[in-house]
Design brief:
Length: 463
Amino acid sequence: MPFPLDLIVRSRRVITAGGTRPASVHIRGGKIVGVLAFDDVPEGCPVDEAGDAAVMPGVVDTHVRVSAAGRTTSDAFEITTRAAAAGGVTTLLDMPFHGIQPTTTAAAVGVKREAAAAACHVDVGLWGGLAPGNERELAPMFEAGVFGFMCALVASDASEYPAVSDSNLRVAMPAITRLGVPLLVHAELPGPIAAAQAKQRAGGGLLARLSPTRRSRRRYRTYLESRPKEAENEAIALMIALCREFRTATHIVHLSSSDALTPLFHARSARLPVSAETCPHYLSFVADEIGDGATAFTCAPPIRERENRELLWAALAGGLIQMVVSDHSPAAAPTANAPDDFTRARPGISSLQLSLPATWTEARARGYTLAHIAEWMCRNPARLAGLSRKGVVDVGFDADLIVMNPDARWKVQEESLEGRVFTPYLGRHLYGIVERTYLRGRRVFDRCGPCAAPHGRILTRSP
């Protein structure tokens, strides 16, 4: 090398752009300047000897909700990004609707950026929110540096997600197409959900119509049947039709229904700019194994049956689903008034720190490799957001790296998690321990040492 290096990270299992091989990753000025032979180590250069542990790109998680419930915005970002670093996530994108002031205006984008600026352990970007009536704010938010826009077709129970209508989308989508950024969509329609819930009430007789029994409210099956696949299927059909009309890059978030895979296949075969993600909880859990009152599993769309899960895995392997992201939503523990009631539980699964090992555990059991994980959780999410220097171990990319022992098995316990979160993964055995996390060549997490001071940046979309 013509100039001194800041660091070399080397391992016999480096997940590079060209495959997995022994290599030394040379870092200077926060960038990767060489991915060379294992023994290519200049004398006197600092070296992280990873041995047989895997070195792979930092995870890029484009679906994270940073909640400020009971905390300041900066505290929420500090806690969330510390958990991200511990889980091997080096870049996250915050969703616009959840706990913190919604980023539905350029002014709100500026407020959130300023509050988070000195608090982040990893790099953070922001999605803008598409809400009814804020179409004129799209261009200003774009100029403020958001990476794209997020909307929901159904309102949340907590009214955090204002639902957009077909008419809202018809106004907004041409503008988003001109801006050249993606529109992310929570794809459930309210009609099928309302019909399913009405059917549940009618099927239970007068007593159920007046007040569902405690036993019914504790059953996961009751919650699952209240959010049927039709809600997703019809919403995705609508978004495909609008995508065909306006040619807006349309991304379906947290895909749960395997029935929607066929229309997505036809849309992509027709070269429509449609993409989709799924989440670790849809790839890990199955509805039949969720016990009564286990409200930590509550999410929207819901976790579905075993066959549905395997079809999602097949679609991921075949490229019909392009990525796995956490859909991290810091869920509050059940209250004393409703400790085990699915009808009153707030949807959301805390999983940011566990996303990588949870997905890897299920992937390795099906014969997939860390190269697949790097594609699904690093490269493709970075592409969605237009992060051209993230998600790959290659020359010119940011030196965002994970040192992970992929063969180590461990049990998820509350004390092992940053923030002591309420999560369905508690007690579950997972493979993959993140030993160290580097952000632009600087160690931001070390399992055997103290956590470094916040080093992350608030990112803006590149022109």
